[in-house]
């Protein structure tokens, strides 16, 4: 298990092995057999499982993705805008392609989409710069693309720093084009979106496995409550 930092892509890039998580893994192992069992978005930090061979990677990948008889429990931490309900609640909203967005990779809640469910539990609320925020523990019960980010935004609690599913999707386009302005960065409040893969637990080969990873300094500093 590695604790991937926000800002590092999982897949290989044209900028050399140090520019991606899998490149760094294979440099560390000294061969090309290192495999990522699960993957996170570039700006999402946290747990990524590593396998040394294809057979184990495939076996764990099916388990962690929910395919087959095994069940994995995933827990994420997110900092969201607004004060969420104090009781645990479920977001049950199907997801599919956002045909109205200029961003090709963007999905949205739509009636004809794939089933998607996310459980949300409040850790604490706080106020920063006179604005309300919440630190939440989020468990995706399905594994759709961008599921947590879309569901929280759909519920009215977008993740802090989310350039695609936040207040202005044009910020994502400005980011990829290298045009993100100082005004954008101030509005986003954080360098990367505040989503962290905190814990992963599952049963595998007659043994219980649990992994946990601490969030980064910027995430922890922002979520430290100034006011209750």
Description:
By secondary structure, this protein is an alpha+beta fold. The chain has one domain: Pseudouridine synthase (2-Layer Sandwich). 22% of the residues lie in helices and 30% in strands. The chain is built from 6 helices and 12 strands. Strands 1, 3, 5, 6, 9, 10, 11 and 12 form an 8-stranded mixed β-sheet that branches. It has a two-stranded antiparallel sheet with strand order 2-4. The longest helix is centred in the N-terminal third of the chain and has 12 residues. The radius of gyration is 18 Å and the shape is globular. The model has no long low-confidence stretch (mean pLDDT 93).
Spell out the key features of this protein.
8-stranded mixed beta sheet, 228 residues, two-stranded antiparallel sheet, alpha+beta, 22% helix, single chain, 6 helices, Pseudouridine synthase, 12 strands
Question: What's the topology here?
Answer:
Blueprint: E1 2-4, H1 21-29, E2 35-36, E3 45-48, E4 50-51, H2 54-65, E5 72-81, E6 89-92, E7 95-97, E8 107-109, E9 117-128, E10 131-140, H3 147-154, H4 170-176, H5 182-188, E11 195-204, E12 207-212, H6 217-223
Parallel strand pairs: 3-11
Antiparallel strand pairs: 1-3, 2-4, 5-10, 5-11, 6-9, 7-8, 9-10, 11-12
The level of helicity is 10-25%
Over all CA atoms, what is the radius of gyration? 18 Å
Total strands: the figure is: 12
Number of domains: 1
Between the first and last Cα atoms, what is the distance in angstroms? Answer: 34 Å
Specify the structural class.
Answer: alpha+beta
